[in-house]
Sequence to fold (423 residues):
Amino acid sequence: MKRFLSLLLVFVMVFSLAACAKKDEPATTEATTAANGETQATTEEQLEWAQGITDTEIVVANSAATSGAFAPVGVPFNAGIEAYFKKINEAGGVQGRQIVFKHVDDEFDPVKGKAALTSFVEDEKVFAIVGHFGTPVVAATIEDLKSYGIPAVYFATGIGQLYNENATGSDRNIFPVQPIYKTEGKIMVARAAGDFEAKKIGIVYTNDDAGKDLLWGAQEMAKELSLELVEQQVAAGATDVSSAITAIKDANVDFVIVAAIQATFPTIVKELAAQNVNKDVITTYVNVSPVIAQGVVNEIAGKFDVYGNGWVSFEGERAKALEEFQKYAVGYETNVYAMTGWIAAYFFVEGLERVDGVITWDKYMDALESAPIMNPFGGEINYANGLRAGTQEMNLSKIDPENKDGAWLPVKDLASINSILGK
Fold:
């Protein structure tokens, strides 16, 4: 079991009626703007509870693929959400209210996802969206979420549209948790500089959203650290990347970032080995899997190491969180997708539990931004000042060159960019 969990250093995802105020609540205030533009104070007793909250319930929802090709991800993901809500409800809920979780199977179809979101917000009037699922659905509904202003916590995708360094107004209700490629690209460059003392970094990126988002992050951090970045683009799914690798070799870089996911990654690494570009490599958390390692371990042996980011850990206090998860997630005790659902529900509830008195959308968002939140299986995430960067602490592992079964060895613990750079 312990050996199995060591392989879970990373999660891979495919990869998202108003009630009257109670008179006995404490009298706090909330700022509002009058028609003349002057700021006025609204007392707690004047506030109305947000939609989806009754005297006994807090209703939330998501749509996710629970049938079809992505059901092996969507079903356990939702099971993890339900398991955490069960834990909270058995302990009395939040402010004495039970959390009710509604779900629609969107089959990974953006049209069905949009329809489900409209129904949740306009007809069923849920309080929040928890665990918005899948790249196509999230991409198709992100602007709808912003337009509604409904809090959306955790997105099961890393698309760049979620990234924001100063979310205000209609952007503020988006709260990503899972790694966003733009943030990960920054962390990759920080690792290259802080852990490998690289000054000149080669980056081979695919011409898809994942590659371009990773490149954007790498460019931003390289600029901040005054490092040289040698960029080479390849087509996603390319079978011949020789010219791009030759350019990286001729540039005599110190370190290589492979900003490509899944099928294109082994092609790039094998070509690096074939051309004897014997510089250490780092790649995205999406590629940290036994199958990926098996595909390149023979080629890299004795030439260079391949490192990968991760965003979860089960060491120390997190081991206790894992035991608690396994107690409630019956049938999904070792399922990584169920664990991500548990994380999604955890972040949502953390915001709720920080709100005193009447719960409004604004007060809920204020609560999420009020202090960093610790991922029960990972690092700290900070939403303060509108930061929407997803996971901000990642660990590091590398392919074990002696293990042909595709093992990844832990190398560095969870750390933020500042920590990696010694700041």
Q: What stands out?
A: The longest helix spans residues 71-90. The radius of gyration is 22 Å.
